[in-house]
Amino acid sequence: MRVVIPDELKIRFRYPARALGITGGVLMLVSILLPWAYAPEALDDMTFYGAPSPLQLFFAVLPLLLILLLAIPLVGKQRLGKGAKVVAWNTTAKTASIMSLIVVAVAVAAIAIGLGGLVNVDPGGWLALVGGIMAVAATLFLPDSPEPTLYRVKSPKWLQILGIVVLMALLLFGAAYILGFEDADDFLMFAAFVVGMVMVLRQFGVFGWLGIAAAANNRILVLSAFVVAFAFPFTQNGSDANMSVASQVLIFAATALGLNIVVGLVGLLDLGYIAFLGAGAFTAAVLSESAFATIKWSPPFIVTVLIAGTVASLLGLLIGAPTLRVSGDYLAIVTLAFGEIFRITMNNLDGNDGPNLTNGSNGIPGIPDLNLFGFDFGKAHVILGIDIGRFANYYWLMLVVIALIIVVFTNLNHSRIGRGWVAIREDELAAEAMGVNTFALKLLAFAGGAFLAGVAGSVKAHYDVSVTPDQYVFLESAFLLAAVVLGGMGTVMGVLVGATILKLLPEKLRFFSDYRLLLFGLLMVIMMRFRPEGIVPDERRQLEFHDTDEELAEEVEEELTSHHAHLYPEAGGFVL
Amino acid sequence: MLEVKEMVVAYGRVNAVKGISFSVEQGQIVTLLGTNGAGKSTTLRSISGLLKLVSGEIWFEGERLDGQPAHKVVERGIAQSPEGRRLFRQMTVEDNLKLGAYSRKDPAGVRSDMDRVYDLFPVLGDRRTEAAGLFSGGEQQMLAIGRAMMSRPKLLMLDEPSMGLSPIMTQTIMRTIQELQSEGVTILLVEQNAQAALSLADRGYVLEVGQIMFSDTGRNLLGDDRVRRTYLGID
To answer: Does the N terminus or the C terminus of chain A have fewer Cβ atoms within 10 A?
Structure first.
């Protein structure tokens, strides 16, 4: 959808449009002082005069930004100086108005649905809606600004580090806040707000700047990310519900990271990856101290982890060796079948025909909590006066596992092996002609990815308490693949983001449960249309934006500005 | 150095190469000429180990080469710049060259060979951190040749290096090939541009539908009526 307004109109109406946009923003700001809803049940209580609810306050940030974005350029190009060029004022204002309108629309819809009809939307809601529509209509008349060049602004190291720390703090706060929502409508409105803020900041050029800052301070970024992740349980004050979700996210993410090697780096489409997670889980269950375990030998967990990983990677070798010689579609079909064969086999190893290994569809229940070096994962602890429950223990364990996986992954990615993998992904025949042993490398990726899934599975078995075959269905494989594709194939950050979104959304949107597959399908279609490289794209696909080519970039920019000057002579090159 | 004996290669049931024999001597430039579908690229791929022989033998430096997997062939000292260049388009110039050197385990030597490629093709050195896909056709061809050189091959096989290039760029590429020869690299060149190829070649073989029709020195072939009619369009 793209509304095209002729340039002449844009030039002619640029001041009225700006005024109208600011008015719309002010209307939205004023609206939070009025009640939006007739009754308190919808969203958080939005029925007061003069006392905005938390969600209304969050929302207000967007129109406030909109007003600033529209008003600041009015001081004139000269006084803005460099600021006129580094920031995409107009385009960002457009994004801010559209995102404000979306958040208002979500809120109004939530009130109408939640309370039974549009009559329950109070004047404040309507005022905000009108303001939003005005702002969107007005900003469509603003000429597009050139791409923001904020990332090229030289900034001192302390500022870069501060930026990273602020980002991390916001992440921690946002995660804690999002998990705190009980109602799906509150969650949806806040999620819309978060998406809106992200879009506005991205358009403003903040993310480009952060990207440079992160690249320059990689170690600090990774370290602070882990500190934040580590600190997360302390924000939950012993809430098991949220920590349970969080640790499930981490288990899912660890598995997705394993799949990311196979799919993201080497480009092998594996549709039965969940079977490796299942293999690890069943191995750990069978070797656990559960009364239902079919093998009465229980090694310490460290040994179990290694056995589980090995069993999974042996399975990987078993199906990889014959199929990896052929390419593409065959592998997808074989792995799809393998996933099903695994599940059905686990269902049938019940002692009726053949050995009893898994108790059939009953699976293995009663798996005791982990006990590592005398630390009982089932027990709650009190640290710094804050309750740390069972789930938080597993959360931390998975955090360590993920840290290990990331270390292995990044080292591999920048090694000779990683280079060979990516070469296979890009052009297998060329890679072979260069002397890459493609079959061995593919097999290594397949077995290595399976090993990681097996490790994750062995923790999952203890976390879930029971292991049954029906936990490992094709749908789960599809979700893992979706997490990798959605987040950004071949990147660590992207897969973590993708896994978080795909695991968190269904938990928080339980009333959508019947439609959640429909929603995911829609989400994937939209992503593939607008951002096929995923949320966090692989750096190899972004080489054009390399920051070492400063001179070249400067030239292009100058050309762009002179082009603008040619188009809009009276505005002096840059149209405000 | 390289000897191909009665080689037969098939795609499915169709024989693409029907029992050809030829040899390449140390330090020579040998060219395979032929129209589309004559089996030139198939021949190169078979030598590289990317295709399996139905029958026949390939010998390299007195040892049997056929049946070896592709990565072993590279280790033995044969590199190929494949048809259509087949660069790793999303990788940088530097990563492409590193992949060309994949079989080598001497980082210092790889480094100096990389500098040599940059000397030979300065445009690659100037833009070494850019993605290969952003380069023009001629530059990509330079990179493809440079990449093949990175394994420090004894025998370098080039599959239609002049394809899609302007006459000037073709000249540059051909001059480079001559330079490589003077440095002691043996070259097996597949070309449609018979004029350019034959003026360099010590020996040429003319292929038609999977068979070698005739062969001679490059100079003689340039004067040969059949070659002039079919490939140079001169009556």
So the answer is: N
